[in-house]
# Entry
Amino acid sequence: MEENMQLIRKTLKKYSQEHLLNGYDKLPETKQKQLLEQIEHTDFELINSLYNKTKEKAEISESEITPIEYWDKSKIKGEYKEFQETGEKAIRNGKLAVVTMAGGQGTRLGHIGPKGTYKLNLEIGEKYLFEILVDSLKEIKQKYGVTIPWYVMTSRENNNQTKEFLEKHNYFGYPSKDIKLFMQGELPLISTEGKILLDKDGCIKEASDGNGGIYEAINKNGILADMKQKGVEWISVGGIDNVLLNIADPILIGLTIKQNNLIGSKSVVKANAQEKVGVFGKVNGKTKVIEYTELPKEMAEKVDENGNLIFGDANILNHLFNIKVLEDLSNVKLPYHTALKKASYLDEENNYIEPVEPNAYKFETFIFDAFERYENMTVLRVKREEEFAPVKNATGVDSPETARALYKAFHGIN
Ligand code: UTP
# Structure
């Protein structure tokens, strides 16, 4: 034990993280054990290199980026029926599963608890974000006569709460045997000075490692095996916070199949050049989502002869994968992106600090960073007012207020 402790202290010293053991002696035994286990599992080399990268500005050079080819759903004419029939056949034959990514922290919204447990007041009554999603699943069931298997990705931080919430609400009437929760991976949060943060309980403050964690998590937790056993071939993947998410669109499925692609995704036209969304573009010939922070300003503002943004197709986190992709990518190492977030922590004097401004780096991989591994993918442009009403911020743009208005307009609620 003493030997082990010495080794741990040595590692912490090497990476200037000795503060992690400052309060160790005062912790209850269970927490001491947890903290030591966390330290042993932490990849300090990775954390160190990620911290060093926070000082670099990630921007893709202009010459590498070219526009994508996309299909505009509202302009598909002759082939529409063919795509629809192909997509509907796949759904009816039980080839589709839905994965909801709900492992995020929802820091901007500031709601206490998992984001899916946020209640949107719709005047006709209140609906939880999870409930809105289940409404869509039930609609598919009614329309196509199949119960789509539903998988919910959570994180260690919110898994129990999510599970309890869904149980308490009886899964909003969806059959529980067709629902599985699975947890994604985590990484420590660090201060802007590169110090790993401690949580209220004296243990390392960890957070989900981004929605790109889905590839590893889906394999590790037996979800992939479960899908295969059920004969699933296509997986619709979306976030929890878009109240107009269209999860089983036969047109996207049919088009992707007809194009012989393994990945399909939806876009909406950017609201304006400055909108803070990732856009689709081709980098070195491969389709990618380019984060707004990584797209040079001139490119973000570039328009064609009709005044339309050339890089104007925003990613709305509505993707379709063939199961082969999830098999291929289960061990993939995706690049990490850095986000500056608000995170409460224990300071060196053992005070619990609740910051008012973002204070911590969170490292995340993104689901779309795997797209470029494939030669081609399908992008289907859809109407924003029909499919995109995100709940991201507490007020203003992409807030409950804007999402409520869009939801009501789409569903004809006055
Ligand atoms: P966002 O990137 O908007 O993050 O997630 P967030 O956690 O909801 O909110 P902020 O940034 O802290 O305010 C988009 C979708 O991806 C999921 C989220 O739950 C949401 O549905 N997500 C995000 C994960 O499942 N895991 C993650 O690690 C991050």
